[in-house]
Structure formats: structure tokens, C-alpha cells
Specification:
elongated; 140 residues; mainly alpha
């Protein structure tokens, strides 16, 4: 029985050491999805809050494990590779949502046409085709 436990422990450590990075990607992706689901529309409206909650959600298990094992609680924040990984995953997930939202706004503001056509039509109808009118359209 002891030999079976030793083999199981050795195999577990081997898997963690060999595939730890991929396991982290899976764990952080699930934590980020859960954090964004909990935040709802706040995640899109306030990206700084979303980033903070996402990082906290990813490191919460590390904080708990360090506390239970008697290690420094914030010791898991020292691994810069995991911080970079969380940042890349968060930016990737946020950029997809931002690009979708930007495209939807662009289509709505143009009335289903391209922005260039909309500007040309407005300039013809209003009789104002100067640069000031065109630049103000993009800031509204």
C-alpha cells in the first residue's frame, strides 16, 4: 500500500512539473470567466475593476493554500510568469469584447452603412462639408 502511494505521489508531481504551465492556463481561464460572469456589465464598463477582480480570483487559491501551509500569504504574487500569463489572458478576453462592442457601435452610428457613407450623406444633406463637421462626428 505504501509503495502504491509513493508511485501515485511521484506521478502526480511529474504531471504537475511537466504540465504546470498548461494547468495554470486552464485554471486562470476558468477563474477569469467566473470573475467576468460575476461582474456582469461592470466588467465592460469599468475595466480596471475587472482586472483587479480577475487577478484576485486567479490568485485566491494560492493565497488560501499559502495560508493553510504556513507560507507567506502573498508569496504566490512573486511569480512574474503567472502575472504575465493572467495579464495576457485578461487582455485577450477583454479585447475580444471591446472589438465586438466597437463594431456594434460603429454599425449603429452609421445606420447599418459604413461610416464613410454616413459622413458623405450628412455633409450633402446639411450643406456642411468642412473638416470640422467630419472631425466632430467621430467624437460624439
Amino acid at each position: 500500500m505504501d509503495q502504491l502511494l509513493e508511485v501515485g505521489a511521484e506521478e502526480s508531481w511529474r504531471v504537475i512539473n511537466d504540465y504546470g504551465f498548461y494547468l495554470d492556463i486552464c485554471h486562470f481561464s476558468i477563474a477569469l470567466m467566473g470573475a467576468k460572469k460575476k461582474l456582469g456589465s461592470t466588467a465592460r464598463e469599468k475595466p480596471l475593476i475587472s482586472a483587479g477582480v480577475s487577478v484576485f480570483a486567479c490568485f485566491l487559491s494560492g493565497f488560501t493554500l499559502n495560508f493553510l501551509c504556513g507560507f507567506p500569504i502573498l508569496g504566490s504574487l512573486q511569480a512574474t510568469t503567472t502575472l504575465y500569463l493572467i495579464a495576457v489572458l485578461w487582455i485577450r478576453a477583454s479585447n475580444r469584447a471591446l472589438v465586438r462592442r466597437w463594431r456594434a457601435r460603429r454599425q449603429v452610428s452609421a445606420g447599418g452603412r459604413s461610416v464613410g457613407e454616413s459622413l458623405a450623406d450628412k455633409a450633402l444633406v446639411s450643406g456642411r462639408s468642412n473638416l470640422f463637421f467630419k472631425s466632430n462626428h467621430f467624437f460624439s
